[in-house]
Design goal:
The structure holds two protein chains of two kinds. Chain A is built from 18 helices and 14 strands. By secondary structure, chain B is an all-alpha fold. Chain B has one domain: MetI-like fold. A two-stranded antiparallel sheet of chain B has the order 1-2. Chain B starts with a helix and ends with a helix. The chains are: A alpha/beta, B mainly alpha. At the A-B interface, α1, α4, α5 and α17 of A face α1 and α12 of B.
Chain lengths: ~450, ~290
């Protein structure tokens, strides 16, 4: 009898396991609806409260410059939409790239997600994982110029809501520069190098660069390449229209390695994260810091920190000129095609994107992709300088690891890493990339 | 008689079935699927292209991936685990197993790092290794009297691998110690006493009585240490993320980069398959070595 009871209990346990499994596997099948079907489905609502659940992932962590703009925007938009139960989560930049790609692969994305434009979002669009925003864009076209959607438009369809646009800026600690006898950031490359030599002689480290996060090295390297070989050359290479085998690029990489070899970079930076390097710059350890202009907010808010932002000087005036910039609209919000509330999420995303842009611009986290509808007189001077730089811009080259496909970007970053470590020279860099990037 | 045998067979099947289903569903099926995906060029979200063994060829020949270098790093870690970490664990287990005063307290102290999250340990060691304010460089400066001296532990390609290994070895000393401590305690007291009566010193008792009796535990520890080294990921990810300049890369770091950053699911699966094969192979080899010893 005991054996029979044991067998029945065991059987019941096995059936319950199978039953649990079937419930779990049914859920993704329901949510993995194609883009168009998702929009026509009735919104998934909480029956007891009648609210619509929306989730969002982004990179506005506590230490991120954009944190306040996200918090303020979310507070405003959720207050205007009490029918929406909005949950959001912020993940650190590098970890986020891993997380969102895994989620896209498994088709388990949140309703709304942060993404970078061009190839990064393009891979997701190609796989049919992103909801097309054309319908909802019609309601916002007067406030969001279509030119700002260029990096998130694929086959003529819009898939992303741009937030702010940023460029790579050369931030200079003016207190340190004035001690070396400079009232302004040197305007020519020769003066700039002389300034670095003087700083070094004074015992000051000219540059801080986070070697632990290779994208920080690209902020320097791409600027040097652009100001040596020209923006058009770099754009063509990044977008696959030209090969990496280019003598000007080779020369530019050698120039960058001269900066490294001359001891202008903090040797400790190789083991530091961007947050640590940025903190060092704000603490007065470095004279210069090349990074995105989203940092303007933090630098402007730090009391006693006297920082100016400018363009990296032109290295080869025959090939490049001031006004050729690295950057453009890249920070974007997108909607998952698998969202059961995709149409609602799309409308919500436009409203949220507009408000994040609003607060982000006021905070100095970047320039607005949306037409400002508010008083901008309180914008910090650093962001205003960036506005002036952008007003005189002739060409933008989007960040290399955003412009390229994920596979190519990984190879590219691997070579950038080797260049920073002086393990290969300019010839090795262009030969390797020309051979490895198809 | 036949009926009884049938009942037994049904009972055994019924009892084994849930575990078997879980084992196949959670372990065997994903391994098979990884094997299948390793034959494809696939970004995880688009169309798959069947390329047979091209991923395996690329794995061992690509200058970009540098898989062999990563594998050597893992094998180095395995070597240090077996010849540094395990002897320390054994020494501690033999010392504490003798029933000294404060035995429980020291057991808890040595085991504590195993209980702490690896990410927390990584952060602690990051601070200790910091070239500016890390306690290690501060101590070096104090001893040498040179305020500017201090290596960049995690930033110098020559030092980073060793620096990353130290916390890994340190963290799991307690884990192996606990396994071996159980082995030491399982040795009958009569055997020790008999050896002592025959005039054996404490060292001789350990060498000729205790250690041979705990060969099974030692085998398990060696297998865990070697396969754990091949699979190592978390602490290296936190400390160096494979840098500087790929000096501390191990196969799992490359796998994650290829899978989630590069979006190469085929290659990621290939590395996963290679890791599984290597872990099984090493477990079998270690088993065989211990069998020959017997």
């Amino acid at each position: 009898m005991k054996k029979i009871i044991s067998a029945i209990l065991t059987g019941a346990m096995a059936i319950s396991l199978v039953a649990c499994g079937s419930t779990d596997t049914a859920a993704p099948a329901d949510t993995a609806a194609p883009a168009d079907a998702a929009a026509t489905e009735a919104p998934a609502t909480d029956a007891s409260t009648g609210t619509i659940d929306l989730t969002m992932w982004c990179i506005a962590t506590e230490s991120d410059s954009n944190r306040h703009s996200y918090e303020a925007a979310i507070a405003d938009v959720t207050a205007a939409h009490p029918e929406i139960n909005f949950q959001w989560e912020a993940i650190e930049n590098q970890a986020y790239k891993t997380k969102i790609k895994a989620a896209v692969a498994a088709d388990e994305m949140p309703d709304i997600f942060f993404t970078w434009s061009c190839a990064f979002l393009g891979d997701f669009v190609d796989a049919g994982r992103v909801y097309c925003l054309d319908e909802e864009y019609k309601n916002f076209s007067s406030e969001l110029p279509e030119v700002m959607l260029g990096n998130t438009t694929y086959d003529g369809k819009h898939y992303g809501v741009p937030l702010t646009m940023n460029i790579v800026g050369l931030f200079a600690n003016m207190d340190i520069l004035s001690e070396a006898g400079y009232d302004e950031v040197p305007g020519t490359y020769e003066e700039f190098i002389a300034c670095c030599d003087k700083l070094k002689a004074n015992g000051v480290i000219p540059f801080g660069c986070a070697g632990k996060e290779t994208w920080c090295v690209t902020e320097y390297l791409e600027s040097v390449i652009e100001k040596s070989a020209g923006a058009d050359v770099l754009n063509d290479i990044f977008l696959g229209r030209a090969t990496w085998a280019n003598d000007d690029v080779k020369g530019a990489v050698d120039t960058f390695q001269e900066l490294v070899g001359n001891g202008y970079f903090d040797p400790n930076g190789i083991a530091l994260t961007n947050d640590e390097v940025k903190a060092n710059f704000m603490a007065g350890k470095y004279a210069f810091y090349m990074n995105g202009t989203w940092n303007c907010a933090d630098f402007a808010a730090q009391e006693g920190l006297n920082v100016k932002v400018s363009e990296f000087p032109v290295i080869n005036a025959d090939k490049s000129k001031l006004g050729e910039l690295i950057g453009g609209p890249s920070d974007t919000l997108a909607v998952a095609a698998s969202s059961p509330n995709a149409a609602v999420a799309a409308q919500f995303t436009f409203e949220l994107g507009k408000e994040i842009c609003h607060y982000g611009y006021l905070d100095g986290c970047g320039l607005p992709a949306w037409t400002p509808y508010y008083d901008t007189s309180s914008i910090n001077p650093l962001t205003n300088t960036v506005s002036d730089i952008c007003a005189n811009a002739s060409t933008y080259v989007l960040f290399g690891d955003t412009a390229m496909s994920a596979d190519d970007a990984t190879i590219y970053l691997s070579y950038v890493d080797q260049v920073y470590g002086c393990m290969i020279d300019g010839q090795g860099f262009v030969d390797g990339l020309a051979a490895d990037i198809r | 008689m036949k009926k009884k045998k049938l009942y037994t067979a049904i009972n055994v099947t019924a009892f084994l079935l849930p575990a078997l289903l879980l084992f196949v569903g959670v372990l065997i099926f994903p391994i098979i699927m990884s094997g299948v995906y390793s034959l494809y060029d696939w970004n995880g979200i688009g169309a798959k292209e069947f390329i047979l063994f091209d991923n395996y060829k690329e794995l061992f020949t690509s200058k970009n991936l540098r898989f062999m270098k990563a594998l050597v790093n893992s094998l180095l870690l395995a070597f240090f685990s077996v010849f540094i970490q395990l002897p320390i664990s054994l020494g501690l287990a033999l010392t504490l197993g003798k029933g000294r005063k404060g035995e429980r307290f020291f057991l808890s102290v040595f085991f504590a790092p195993v209980l702490i999250s690896t990410v927390v340990i990584g952060q602690l060691w990051l601070k200790m290794y910091n070239p500016d304010y890390g306690i290690i460089n501060m101590a070096i400066r104090l001893i040498t009297g040179n305020p500017d001296f201090g290596p960049i532990w995690l930033g110098d390609p020559k030092l980073a691998l060793g620096a990353a290994f130290v916390p890994i070895l340190w963290q799991y000393v307690g884990y192996h110690m606990l396994l071996m401590y159980a082995g030491v305690k399982s040795v009958p007291v009569e055997l020790r006493e008999a050896a002592m009566l025959d005039g054996a010193s404490q060292g001789q008792v350990n060498r000729y009585v205790v250690i041979p009796c705990m060969k099974g535990i030692l085998k398990v520890s060696v297998i865990f240490a070697v396969t754990g080294s091949l699979k190592s990921f978390d602490l290296i990810y936190v400390l160096t993320n494979g840098g500087p300049f790929k000096a501390t890369e191990v196969p799992s770091i490359i796998m994650i980069r290829e899978l989630f950053i590069g979006g190469k699911y085929g290659m990621g699966s290939t590395i996963a398959v290679m890791l599984i094969v290597l872990c099984f192979a090493f477990a079998l080899i270690i088993n065989r070595i211990f069998k020959q010893e017997d």
